[in-house]
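Subject: Sanity check before I submit

Could someone independently write out the structure tokens for this chain? I want to compare against mine line by line before I put it in a report. The sequence has 95 residues.
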Amino acid sequence: MPDHFYVYPAYLTGASRAAGRRVAQRQTVRADVTLEEILSAVKSLGFRGEIEPKQYPRAPWKGEGRVKVMKKSGVTKEAALRQLAAALAKTKPAH
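---
Independent answer below. Compare away.
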């Protein structure tokens, strides 16, 4: 099992599940969330992370990049994404 997972902005925005959203609609953040903001939220939650220039496979024309997040023991990717969405929602609410 890898010791990391990736977070693309599409995982956290109001896009549809088909477009890549991984959190519940009510937990989404504004579509203009940046990789730096995601990385800052990742670090505030106690994870280690870094920005990578890889594009999201479903939308390579956007060229947004991704954040590589090191896993913590006992925390699933889904739980980490929910925590991350909650942390980002404090600064960038969807509505």
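---
OP: Matches mine. For the report I'm noting this point. The longest helix spans residues 77-89.
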